[in-house]
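Long-time lurker, first post. I've been practising inverse folding by hand and with some scripts of my own, and I keep getting stuck on stretches where the structure tokens seem ambiguous. Below is the full token string for one chain I'm working on. Before anyone asks, I'm not after the true native sequence, just a reasonable design that respects the backbone. If someone could post their per-position residues I'd love to compare against what I wrote down in my notebook.
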């Protein structure tokens, strides 16, 4: 792990140094100087040409969404459209040849466009470096700056796993030291190719590139780029990198967007990035349709405070390998555990007001993080080199200490409606059925085998709903997310209350295509409904988040519940502004997935467990627990193997300690008759003894010989052969036989 982290750090340093060297080289290379002015644009001191064959010319028509067009024109609405008179008032400055261009001056209605021709994408020499040296560009109908056609070093189908080097990209932007550059831009709604519904134009960002774009600072990194956007701020249709630059974005929608689905990478390698997004109806701070990778710099992002958006959002992995990240939103997408730098994800039980001061201290009271929120928020993602693993931290909002009741591993233990591990959940778990063939008679031993249940999605989740919480925020290799954060009652002086849902029954899991039922919410004290906030998010946070006051949901609680497959968390809490009460209760539930709170979809064994669970071959040790680290007994292993293979159970007298008619005897009998198990050589099978990895290997090799098949499973078994096999490891191994 240390080697991996060091390698990534060195890569980030190399990229930063490469970018700095290239920026210095570009500023010392031969340059064309473009001076913008409403009175007339000059190029190297001469009036700009109007000839489209020139390296720089003015007079091109601006691409915009025209008003008064019918539905066959595009997908824009009248609010997206502009008149021909407004568009014609803009001066378009177009660069048509590779080179370095230093741009300064002001266009109050204009656009800077770069278009080296349709063949440029495959030409490594088709590179333009823009040095912004005090440029001020405003467009009210389209992007203020747009790269149309330049060299593209990457394929739009190449999955880079979040790592890109854009030093050779055709779109290079350098922010000159000591300068302030502003781009105030609009956007172009989707315009169809004539006679089709295929895209001809669609440019959502005020500063836009159709190709990968690399933005850097000067040698000292003191320049600024300030973007104000009528829709989205800084956009690339493929990849985008920010290096040693100072970028400030104010956007009605997303602040930054890279939009090739599953492929795009937004890479932040240094400098300072400030994003205030979602000033309209919605919007994420940084939104990548692929990956978001942070290797360095200082990033402060915030999203819309009303829509379910986040300061950071990515459809693929979010990797934080360095720098300082402060991202606020109603929800943030989950950070990948492959990140090389420690991070903390904080999900508050209720919305925190604009102006709130959030601070994190270590156990000695030393402050390592403090932020004053400019907008209301419910989620914060924080990462810094100061944040350490296995270290106790305390969280404060406006000086009041906070506590949490849930984390990345599910709810904290204690209380609630969790059944005893090993037994049927809540007494309503069926004892038989759902197997391949008839189930054997007899009662399963505690902790070894639980007959399948929840195949119809009706079992309660069993997650602890009401717990005391903890004020010790400790990030470990396994836990980085903390939920249900609210004021600690001892610190706030308020009375703590708890909640129940569905008359104490909790939230029952639902099958695919069904909606989990939420019919009733009750508090243990007389809290006004307008002071109770209800929030549902997916776990880990990726796609779903809804939050309402209970007073807004009166008579329609189901409106907040999701329908798509996944694992979700319901949080019911007193709003932080209530002067008398504090408190939060949480429940986990699933739709169409595993009901276990101790297995995360990102766990290596998850898909294997799900495959076996869906076939009724392995089930939980409780209604919401799978106990992946628990040892597997010899009886359980043989029974599960036999059920997986669909063998015919057969009683046998081969072993003195296998009682006829027990839940496992028929499968042990089958295994003994076929030479798959031999016992201890003294007539004993030892059914309740933990199975070792070595023994499992022997069982499977004997079965493979019997069935005349080849199995390559050695690499799936633990390295230490005497180590007891766990339930998770058994699932991974047996999944290979499906």
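-- Answer (accepted) --
I ran through it position by position. Result:
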């Amino acid at each position: 792990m240390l080697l991996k982290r060091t390698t990534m750090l060195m890569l980030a340093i190399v990229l930063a140094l490469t970018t700095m060297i290239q920026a210095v080289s570009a500023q010392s290379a031969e340059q064309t100087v473009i001076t913008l002015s409403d009175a007339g644009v000059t190029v190297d001191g001469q009036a700009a040409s109007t000839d489209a064959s020139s390296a720089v010319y003015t007079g091109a028509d601006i691409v915009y969404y025209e008003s008064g067009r019918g539905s066959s024109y595009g997908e824009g609405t009248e609010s997206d459209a502009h008149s021909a008179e407004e568009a014609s008032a803009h001066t378009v400055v177009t660069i048509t040849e590779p080179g370095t261009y230093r741009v300064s001056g002001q266009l109050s209605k204009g656009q800077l466009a770069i278009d080296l021709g349709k063949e440029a994408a495959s030409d490594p020499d088709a590179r333009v470096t823009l040095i912004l040296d005090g440029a001020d560009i405003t467009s009210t109908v389209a992007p203020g700056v747009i790269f149309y056609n330049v060299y593209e070093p990457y394929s739009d189908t190449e999955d880079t796993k979040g790592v890109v080097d854009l030093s050779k990209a055709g779109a290079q932007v350098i922010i000159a030291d000591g300068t302030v550059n502003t781009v105030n831009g609009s956007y172009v709604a989707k315009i169809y190719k004539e006679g089709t519904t295929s895209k001809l134009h669609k440019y959502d960002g005020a500063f836009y590139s159709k190709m990968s774009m690399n933005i850097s600072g000067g040698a000292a990194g003191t320049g600024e780029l300030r973007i104000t956007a009528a829709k989205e701020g800084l956009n690339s249709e493929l990849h985008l990198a920010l290096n040693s630059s100072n970028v400030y974005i104010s956007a009605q929608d997303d602040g930054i967007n890279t939009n090739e689905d599953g492929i795009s990478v937004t890479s932040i390698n240094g400098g300072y990035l400030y994003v205030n997004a979602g000033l309209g109806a919605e919007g994420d701070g940084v939104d990548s349709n692929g990956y978001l990778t942070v290797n360095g710099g200082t990033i402060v992002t915030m999203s819309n405070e009303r829509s379910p958006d986040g300061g950071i959002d990515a459809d693929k992995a979010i990797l934080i390998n360095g720098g300082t990240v402060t991202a606020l939103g109603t929800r943030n997408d989950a950070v990948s555990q492959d990140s090389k730098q420690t991070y903390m994800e904080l999900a508050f039980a209720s919305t925190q007001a604009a102006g709130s001061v959030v601070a994190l201290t270590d156990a000695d009271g030393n402050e390592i993080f403090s932020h004053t929120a400019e907008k209301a928020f419910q989620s914060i993602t924080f990462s810094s080199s100061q944040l350490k693993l296995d270290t106790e931290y305390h969280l404060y909002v406006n000086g009041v200490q906070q506590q949490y009741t849930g984390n990345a591993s599910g709810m904290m233990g204690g209380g609630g409606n969790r059944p005893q591990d090993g037994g049927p959940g809540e007494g309503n778990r069926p004892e038989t059925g759902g197997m391949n063939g008839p189930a054997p008679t007899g009662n399963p031993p505690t902790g070894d085998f639980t007959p399948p249940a929840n195949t119809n999605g009706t079992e309660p989740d069993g997650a602890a709903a009401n717990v005391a919480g903890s004020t010790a925020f400790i990030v470990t290799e396994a836990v980085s997310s903390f939920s249900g954060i609210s004021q600690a009652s001892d610190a706030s002086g308020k009375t703590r209350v708890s909640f129940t849902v569905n008359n104490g029954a909790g939230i029952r899991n639902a099958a695919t295509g069904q909606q989990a039922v939420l019919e009733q919410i009750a508090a243990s004290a007389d809290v006004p409904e307008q002071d109770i906030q209800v929030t549902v998010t997916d776990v880990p946070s990726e796609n779903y988040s809804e939050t309402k006051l209970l007073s807004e949901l009166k008579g329609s609680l189901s409106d907040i519940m999701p329908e798509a497959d996944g694992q979700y968390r319901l949080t019911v809490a007193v709003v932080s502004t209530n002067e008398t009460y504090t408190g939060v209760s949480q429940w986990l539930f699933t739709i169409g997935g595993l009901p276990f709170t101790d297995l995360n979809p990102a766990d290596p064994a998850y898909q294997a467990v799900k495959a076996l669970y869906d076939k009724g071959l392995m089930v939980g040790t409780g209604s919401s627990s799978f106990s992946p680290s628990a040892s597997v007994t010899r009886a359980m292993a043989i029974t599960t193997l036999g059920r997986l293979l669909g063998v015919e159970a057969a009683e046998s007298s081969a072993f003195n300690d296998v009682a006829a008619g027990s839940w496992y005897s028929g499968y042990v009998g089958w295994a003994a008759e076929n030479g798959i198990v031999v016992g201890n050589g003294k007539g004993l099978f030892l059914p309740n003894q933990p199975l070792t990895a070595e023994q499992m290997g022997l069982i499977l090799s004997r079965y493979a010989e019997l069935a005349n098949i080849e199995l390559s499973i050695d690499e799936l078994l633990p390295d230490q052969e005497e180590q007891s096999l766990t339930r998770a490891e058994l699932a991974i191994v047996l999944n290979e036989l499906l």
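A couple of notes from the structure itself: Residues 250 and 276 are 5 Å apart (CA to CA). The helical segments are 2-28, 84-88, 489-492, 606-614, 634-645, 665-673, 693-707, 727-735. Happy to go over any region you disagree with.
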